[in-house]
Amino acid sequence: MNQPMTNSEQDEAPEPLKPRRRGIYVLPNAVTLAALFAGFYGIVMAMSGRFESAAIGIFCAAVLDSLDGRIARMTNTQSAFGEQMDSLCDMVSFGLAPALIVYEWALKGLGKPGWIVAFIYCAAAALRLARFNTNIGVVDKRFFQGLPSPAAAALVIGFIFVMDDAGWREAFKLPWLSWTALGVTLFAGLTMVTNLPFYSFKVVGGRRTVPFAVIVAVALGIALVNVHPPLVLFSLFCSYGLSGYLIYAYRKAKGRPVSVIATSTDEPEERGLH
After folding, report:
1. What are the structural domains of the chain?
2. Residue 128 burial by CB count (10 A; 0-12/13-18/19+): exposed, middle or buried?
3. pLDDT tens, 109-148?
4. How far apart are the C-alpha atoms of 236 and 14, rounded to whole Å?
5. Is the separation of the CB atoms in 264 and 139 below 8 Å?
6. Pairwise CA distance, residues 123 & 194, whole Å
7. Taking a C-beta distance cutoff of 8 angstroms, is the pair 215, 139 a contact?
8. Which of 38, 125, 168, 196 is such that its CA lies 20 to 30 A from the CA of 263?
9. E strand or H helix at 199
């Protein structure tokens, strides 16, 4: 039988440990806030009619968004707070901001169809981010499930950047340009919520070594972008936006699995959102 504790034993019993407060790491969250500022800056510039500056703001947000997670992993400062912060900032910079910018640039001239498509894009970005957070543990890390929201934003904003650079001002007064912008926005929004596989480049950007030719290709790519930044960037993101459809068609033709969840779990139907 268990003996009751004496008074001396009760006095010596250790006190229950108090839960530790969860800290907030400065460096990765500062980069995330900088990405949020860039997205907000894009909205402000669009409201002022400075769409080239708005496009640059969104592109800067995309670059900063690609850095915050890597910085957190390199400095071992990952946190649940940082993950939630990143998702909320992505929703503003790559969901709300592009929808408002393209609406102000072209879609407001189409009336109800314009703001409906802008909302569809915004809602698709929210659904894409929510599904990403839900499926982060079951998706093949080599691929994204659907077009990533930064790439979708770059596709929409890249189109505005190209047209603004070509001298097409006040696009909402040009029906053909407004309807083209509507088509690009709708394509980007719907592609975000598909199950198409888009290469994530996480293997190339990780700690693994790569062939020397890859570094040469990166240098050539940087030089190519400087030839004509608006056109080259838009072409790159158009190619990436179509790559998921090509990968899907190739895998389907070869009889290979096309679901990025099916390639990463033994029972793909039991876990994750398809």
Report:
1. 26-254 (1.20.120.1760)
2. buried
3. 999 999 999 999 999 999 999 998 888 777 778 888 999 9
4. 62
5. yes
6. 13
7. no
8. 125
9. strand 197-199
